[in-house]
Amino acid sequence: MMLLCIRNLSVTFDTLRGPFRAIEGIDLDLYEGETLAIVGESGCGKSVLGHAIMRLLDDIATVDGSVKYKGQEVYSMEKSELLNLRGKSISLVPQSPSTSFNPVLKVGEQIKEIIEKDRIDKGPAAKKRAIDFLAKAGFSDPLSIYNSYPHQLSGGMCERALIAMAVSVEPELIIADEPTKGLDALSRKSLLAMLHEMAQGASMIMITHDLKAAATCRRVTVMYSGEIVEEGRTSNLLNSPKHFYTQGLLEAQPSRAMLPIKGRHTLLSHNDIGCRFRERCDAADEMCKNHPVLRRRDVMEWVRCHHA
Ligand SMILES: Nc1ncnc2c1ncn2[C@@H]1O[C@H](COP(=O)(O)OP(=O)(O)OP(=O)(O)O)[C@@H](O)[C@H]1O
Ligand SMILES: [Mg+2]
Questions:
Q1: Strand locations in 16-76, DSSP E?
Q2: Percentage helix, strand, coil for the chain under 3-state DSSP, each rounded to 5
Q3: Is residue 108 within 8 Å of residue 146, measured between CB atoms?
Q4: Whose CA is nearest to atom 14 of ligand 1?
Q5: Ligand 2 mean position, distance from CA 43 (Å)
Q6: Integer distance in angstroms from the first to the last C-alpha of the chain?
Q7: Most buried by CB count within 10 Å: which residue of 74, 103, 142, 221?
């Protein structure tokens, strides 16, 4: 069953320097039980997309297009439906673990509070559930973590506790924003294994810079400058990327040539209608002055490039 169906989604921020379009024309489908990675350089709009799905953007954001969750338009939901969506259906593991907990409350109390709000478990039952999920998140002494304050935990421990919090309400969809940020290779590997194990039975969108993390998902979507530029099954996309940007991202990996993509990721200018990657692309020619559409190349394979 289709869980999430996004069509022509754009987000524009009303800033002091005028309107700024952070994402544009996003089409995305997610099926029940699927895992999807969203990759792309800093500032390309990954977190904005994640927040837009849950209607969590603040008032300076104008959202156009459609986000349907199980067939229901998120942007026409009543307040109670929206609370249900955010509490029971979709859980977000936010991007900055250290600022996502309230610093003056114990970690466990905060998880318990979420459980009490979104599930029937109350009091001691909620506490037990919180401790159980801390244990599942790999803490050998979950009770002491329960009683810790956020500043007493390292970045990696905070991330684990946040994941425990997000999955403790048994959501249908988990959106994990940069779950491996700042972790060393070993912790990253174990965190990813833990995340997938805990997310079993649910669907997941994993937002990440890290192609190794993306490789643990079934499908990958590549974003550049607010748009989707390529999408495909993980093994196809990582083994034979079609878009020059995806090829560049792969070359820039430490395990490969570690060659950075030339030039800088630029934010879109509204006047420029061409391919957004063309200034950085060796294959760019006259044709690229026209904006390429996201074109279907094969089953589950999409690419936005005149030359692919
Ligand atoms: N509230 C806001 N007001 C104005 N601009 C914003 C706001 N939130 C995000 N942006 C801008 O939208 C663009 C996309 O931001 P976003 O946080 O989605 O990037 P990202 O891909 O998640 O990057 P990173 O990998 O660094 O987390 C950025 O240029 C950012 O500055
Ligand atoms: Mg982000």
A1: 18-31, 35-39, 61-69, 72-73
A2: 35, 25, 40
A3: yes
A4: 45
A5: 7
A6: 31
A7: 221
**Residue 245 — pLDDT band, cuts 50, 70, 90?**
very high
**pLDDT band at residue 228 under the 50/70/90 scheme:** very high
Lowest mean pLDDT among 68-77, 91-100, 225-234: 91-100
- Note whether 266 and 225 are within 8 A (CB): yes
Q: Select from 39, 46, 99 the residue to mutate for testing ligand 1; criterion: most ligand atoms less than 8 Å from CB.
A: 46
pTM of model > 0.85: yes
Distance (angstroms) between ligand 2 centre and the Cα of 270 equals 22
Cα radius of gyration (the chain)? 20
Whether 271 has a pLDDT exceeding 80, the answer reads no
Task: Using the atom order of ligand 1, give the atom closest to the CA of residue 49.
Answer: 18
59 pLDDT tier (thresholds 50, 70, 90): confident
For residue 21, the CA-to-ligand 1 centroid distance in Å is: 10
Domain boundaries along the sequence of the chain: 2-217, 221-231+243-308
- Section 14-37 average pLDDT: 94
Distance CA 152, CA 141 (A): 14
Q: 247 C-alpha to center of ligand 2: Å?
A: 21
Least confident of 112-126, 236-250, 251-265: 251-265
Tell me the fold of 2-217: Rossmann fold (3.40.50)
Q: Whose CA is nearest to atom 4 of ligand 1?
A: 13
